[in-house]
Amino acid sequence: MALYVHKYGGTSVGSTERIRHVADNIVKARERGDSIVVVVSAMSGETNRLIALAQEIQANPDPRELDVLLATGEQITIALLCMALHEKGVPACSYTGGQVKILTDRSYNKARILNIDTNRIANDLARDKVVVVAGFQGITEDGDITTLGRGGSDTTAVALAAALKADECLIYTDVDGVYTTDPRVEPNARRLDRITFEEMLEMASLGSKVLQIRSVEFAGKYNVPLRVLSSFTEGPGTLISYEEENVEKPLISGIAFNRDEAKLTILGVPDRPGIAYKILGPIADANIEVDMIVQNIAQDGTTDFTFTVHRNDYRKALEILRSTCAELGAREVAGDDKIVKVSLVGVGMRSHAGIASKMFEALAREGINIQMISTSEIKISVVLNEKYLELAVRSLHEAFNLDQSSEAA
Amino acid sequence: MALYVHKYGGTSVGSTERIRHVADNIVKARERGDSIVVVVSAMSGETNRLIALAQEIQANPDPRELDVLLATGEQITIALLCMALHEKGVPACSYTGGQVKILTDRSYNKARILNIDTNRIANDLARDKVVVVAGFQGITEDGDITTLGRGGSDTTAVALAAALKADECLIYTDVDGVYTTDPRVEPNARRLDRITFEEMLEMASLGSKVLQIRSVEFAGKYNVPLRVLSSFTEGPGTLISYEEENVEKPLISGIAFNRDEAKLTILGVPDRPGIAYKILGPIADANIEVDMIVQNIAQDGTTDFTFTVHRNDYRKALEILRSTCAELGAREVAGDDKIVKVSLVGVGMRSHAGIASKMFEALAREGINIQMISTSEIKISVVLNEKYLELAVRSLHEAFNLDQSSEAA
């Protein structure tokens, strides 16, 4: 008998009507003979309601107490979903993170799972019950309530699937799978039947909000096949797993992009060892995360150094960089927050030359100027003026035949 | 250093503003040097919101899951109150019923407390922290969440006070104490400085909704002094404790009344042994609780048998009694749901004759007909036509000088 972990996000359980619909979905899966463990998020809106209450009292709520507060959101959903299952005659039992001992470290608001005690769950499954577990939350060794941070329910689902050695972890959401690119930008975007963990990580880190990075990392680490699918429409969704040797690998799986970045350059920096640290140290000290970093070869003893940050951090980073510029005796600082990062992602590119040149050719054909380039084993990213976003995505989608199924690519 | 358990009900924590006000109250108590454990209810309205959600899914929600759901209400309050205390610079730590191991039996929705593990609380108190505990909830030996039923937060507070050997358990509510009678009926009603557990039980069981009976029983059993006081206004409230030998005992502490009853009489019942069981057995089988029972001596081999039930059960009880009447060959059945029960309560009446006659005299003076009489060691109850309620209460209040302080009575 196959064991599946289902995860339903906030929108999927956003009302009692939708919770009943989720119960129907579980009933169908049971009729197929599956054993099911369900992980749920708080009803959409509930977490924000709780945070608003907290902030009426404390601008920066105490981290331990915030977790005690937020954990109630998922606890409400597990109880309501079990009631809906009982109403349909399905035996079901709910557990909070503390009750199934999702043991975490003590990092309130962003705790990491250390261990899961699967005894109670295994017992219930053996007695043909559906087990419903609150996502997003855990408990420390001392019995304190913790939460896992953004996307924590996905992490709970994957961790449970790993601990229970589930056949698949099904992430039910409001989209029906992972697409070659954002369908709002490229109407020809196509749902992928499958994608590798590594590709999904690159897609996720570039702003495809289908899955949180941590849960994909976790799934990859423990080799838990993940499937993203819609809780509102039928369909196979997208399977995220390791690449199989005998499957024809597409060159490119998709095109990701990110409009949330801004670019900063320090020009005419004396080219000395340790210069990168002197530039990025103060940025890191200000808790600003840096994404792309490009440094070109030096000319005349000076170099130009460019990096990107989240657009929200642009002003602050610019200020820091100006004072660094004076300290280092660099020539000047330039910045631009009207940029976009576009990336080709695909494990296939590992073994194929010419992807980059084909990409640059496609962009050149449209007269799009490339401001920065950065590459990894399975990704090529370029930074462009943001006005070119749609044009760039569509021309690349076409150039790599992404609207056709993988086999034909 | 004195240890106090504070309990704040739903109205007292009904908004973030009120929660801040509760925090102020705790700050003041700390400034007096008290060690404090706080028990809170769910914010007013929250429990009803949760029950409504449950009933959208199941007309009769699954008892286990209902407790998982309802327990979130108090969990929200403990977190918010701790935030409010932190905001005022007071170290505080919250605990759910499960976290401090308020161990209960498995009777979901109306669990009984079996044991409390006070280790964590004692540790926190030793480190000068305010400990905030979720009322109304506990946990079974298997780690399942339970709730204690109506008034459960009072029970939690009293049980904690008993387990911690607290000096007093302060029940903060929206009234400033226990009154000689309902001030809405008798404007001269006076707040009592103290009252005994036994008197309070009689008052509570007669509809004074200040405290739940179970918590008063519990406090009496473990000799925990209870104090009822207002969370909105300053004042000493009313202390509920055992009578002290050297305190001048008032004859009468108060006048309680109950408008929720209805009276049923079966007339001309053959006076045989076992007749009371034959009449009340079918009533009990229908889960109808009986309050007063009066049977007078038999005449001519038949007797009349009268009892009272909750007004909601009147129609059902009447129906049952009619079929019993036919079975037993009794003459007829009569009933009246326009009655009220008025009771004099006071430990002092134990040692004083003449209370009853003084009571009947006062009622006779106003031309009030007494339909039933029932007495206990510290209570005399009469059933009257409900139209006489206000008149009866006021004339008794005056006859026993209840508007004057105890010593003068």
TrEMBL record, chains A, B:
Pfam families xrefs: AA_kinase, ACT, ACT_9
CDD domains registered for this protein in UniProt = AAK_AKii-LysC-BS (cd04261), ACT_AK-LysC-DapG-like_2 (cd04923), ACT_AKii-LysC-BS-like_1 (cd04913)
Lineage: superkingdom: Bacteria
Which InterPro entries does the record associate with it? AceGlu_kinase-like_sf, ACT-like_dom_sf, ACT_Aspartokinase, ACT_dom, AKii-LysC-BS, Asp/Glu/Uridylate_kinase, Asp_kin_monofn, Asp_kinase
**For this protein, what is the EC number?**
2.7.2.4
Q: Which PROSITE patterns match?
A: ACT (PS51671), ASPARTOKINASE (PS00324)
MF GO annotations: aspartate kinase activity
- What does the record give as its pathway? Amino-acid biosynthesis; L-methionine biosynthesis via de novo pathway; L-homoserine from L-aspartate: step 1/3; Amino-acid biosynthesis; L-threonine biosynthesis; L-threonine from L-aspartate: step 1/5; Amino-acid biosynthesis; L-lysine biosynthesis via DAP pathway; (S)-tetrahydrodipicolinate from L-aspartate: step 1/4
Q: Which UniProt keywords apply?
A: Amino-acid biosynthesis, ATP-binding, Kinase, Lysine biosynthesis, Nucleotide-binding, Transferase
User: Residue limits of the ACT domain?
Assistant: 264-338, 344-409
Q: Which reaction does it catalyse?
A: L-aspartate + ATP = 4-phospho-L-aspartate + ADP
Question: Which family is it part of?
Answer: Belongs to the aspartokinase family.
What is the official name of this protein in its record? Aspartokinase
Give the species this sequence originates from: Methylocaldum szegediense
The organism's taxonomy opens as: Bacteria, Pseudomonadati, Pseudomonadota, Gammaproteobacteria, Methylococcales
